[in-house]
Amino acid sequence: MLVLGIESSCDETGVALIEGRSSGVPNLLAHALHSQVEMHQAYGGVVPELASRDHIRRVLPLTHQVLNQSGRVLADVDVVAYTRGPGLAGALLVGAGVACALGAALGKPVLGVHHLEGHLLSPFLSADPPAFPFVALLVSGGHTQLMRVDGVGLYALLGESIDDAAGEAFDKSAKLMGLGYPGGPALSSLARQGNAVAYKLPRPLLHSGDLDFSFAGLKTAVMVQAKKLVAAHATDGQTSGLETFTSLPIGIRADLAASTEAAIVEVLVKKSLAALERTGLRSLVVAGGVGANRVLRAQLDAACATRSVQVFYPELDLCTDNGAMIALAAAMRLLSGKQKASTVYAFDVKPRWPLDQIEPDVAAIS
């Protein structure tokens, strides 16, 4: 079974071809990705209308690229999968429209996939895939969640962010520091030169007794500390506003970046360990863009090694949004009998769609 996957939920257009196998993990034949980062940098964040228009320009050329790389043609595709949600409504509609048009033209079924399920299952494409059951830490863009995963489609929410997600904390803190867009990778890069204990920043909900997250207060604390640093180094005639933060010595800025990163990572690590202890499971999957953070990986690896817990990550090039995870999730749902692809080509999208509320296909599993 060949599954063509299309991802267009935000600012990256991804297309991939997966070979689903009844025994073993599906095989990734080819994937291609176009990032819109350069286009959105001038605006300091994603402009939804521009994102949608760029998806329209990119999706078919990327599809041709994937088919050429894999040595296959469109007629070989058995199922066309696309991201149904969550994400930007206009961007989702582009991928859904193209996928359903391709399906109708080819006479092949289509399947809408949950974006976060794609991230959650993406480590199954790594050289060392996990096995069910496991705890999953999903740290993707606007989502930070801990899930218990007992199988494909069997997800129980353990905890989630009640305000800003970890990725938002990285990006918003970076913006306060004048680091531009995308902020998270820029902040982490600057943090490598800094002292992670230079400034005392809060760890919200670290001792709350539950598995929820909160990062909005941390962002505020970073802003307050940045203003203090600017005021302390201001000279006659200089403003004390945040716009002068980038003129501070690199060491000071790096220390604040490192302290911010340390606060976010500590919360993620300790909440993940608490989830493992609460469930009694010995496997942790970390997925989503923040899962590529080197400090997070190092601290999780060290903490889990002392507890005989295995940690699994996607390959680095599959941490951000991509078509491979969408094709993979579709293949795993179809092969597990959790869902059937459809030849009804009318479609909708779900900009808001909780992962633990994926509707089961009763006809497929009855």
Question: What is the annotated CATH architecture of the largest domain?
Answer: 2-Layer Sandwich
Instruction: State the domain count.
Output: 2
> What is the CATH class of the largest domain?
Alpha Beta
Give Rg in angstroms.
Answer: 21 Å
Molecular shape: globular
For CATH, the homologous superfamily of the largest domain is named as: ATPase, nucleotide binding domain
Widest sheet: strand order?
Answer: 3-2-1-4-5
Strand content: 15-25%
Task: Give a structural overview.
This protein has helices spanning 37-41, 48-70, 89-106, 115-121, 166-176, 183-191, 216-233, 250-279, 294-305, 323-336, 362-365, and strands at 2-7, 12-19, 27-35, 79-85, 110-114, 134-140, 143-151, 154-160, 283-287, 310-312. The chain is α/β, with parallel strands linked by helices. The chain folds into two domains: 2-121 and 319-365, ATPase, nucleotide binding domain (Nucleotidyltransferase, domain 5); 131-313, Nucleotidyltransferase, domain 5. The protein has a five-stranded mixed beta sheet, sandwiched between helices. A five-stranded mixed beta sheet has the order 8-7-6-9-10, sandwiched between helices. A hairpin with a 2-residue loop joins β6 and β7 (143-151). α4 (115-121) packs across α10 and α5 (166-176) crosses α6. The longest helix has 30 residues, at 250-279. The relative contact order is 0.19. The model is unreliable at 361-366 (pLDDT under 50).
